[in-house]
Write a structure and sequence with these properties.
A six-stranded antiparallel sheet has the order 1-2-4-5-6-3, with helices on one face. The protein has a single domain, classed as Thiol Ester Dehydrase, Chain A. About 30% of the residues are buried. It is an alpha+beta fold. It starts with 6 loop residues before the first helix and ends with a strand. Helix content is about 20%, strand content about 45%.
Length: about 150
């Protein structure tokens, strides 16, 4: 298993597509345990154009979505392909989400995520988001792997 995934490799693991594929890279991968996702937050990203004109900010809910995508990519990368083929990963719960500082484009948002535990098809994760080593947000969440219809 490689230590990092490019956006092209992430696309092979996740069902998300532009403009909703938020993560650009997954690096520092420790199989089924942790990774760092990179989100390049740009001035022309769809989510900042109207949030807020003249003072763009990445919405907190999309930071949580990026956490979820990073966790799904980490898990799909680590498990047997037959386990996630024709499957989707759905968020089940978000706990303790805190938004400490606004994420302003143009920046590189780094999401440090960790799998806390798994029980069958249910996984629990935690993550912290940073820009230039300054903590922007953190959260815990659960997700499940379901059959694609």
């Amino acid at each position: 298993m490689s230590d990092s995934l490019t956006k092209e490799e992430i696309i092979k693991l996740l069902p998300h597509r532009e403009p909703m594929l938020l993560i650009d890279e997954l690096k520092n991968i420790k199989k089924l345990f942790s990774a760092t996702a990179i989100v390049n937050v740009k001035k022309n990203s769809f989510y900042v154009q109207g949030h807020f004109p003249g003072q763009p900010v990445m919405p907190g809910v999309l930071i949580v979505e990026a956490f979820g995508q990073a966790a799904a990519a980490l898990t799909a990368h680590g498990i047997d392909k037959s386990t996630y083929e024709n499957k989707l990963v759905f968020l089940m719960s978000v706990e303790k989400a805190r938004f400490r500082n606004p994420v302003i484009p143009d920046c590189k948002l780094e999401l440090n995520i960790e799998a806390i535990r798994s029980h069958g098809k249910v996984w629990k994760y935690k993550g912290e988001a940073f820009v230039n080593e300054k903590k922007m947000a953190d959260a815990q969440w659960s997700a499940t792997i379901v059959d694609r219809k």
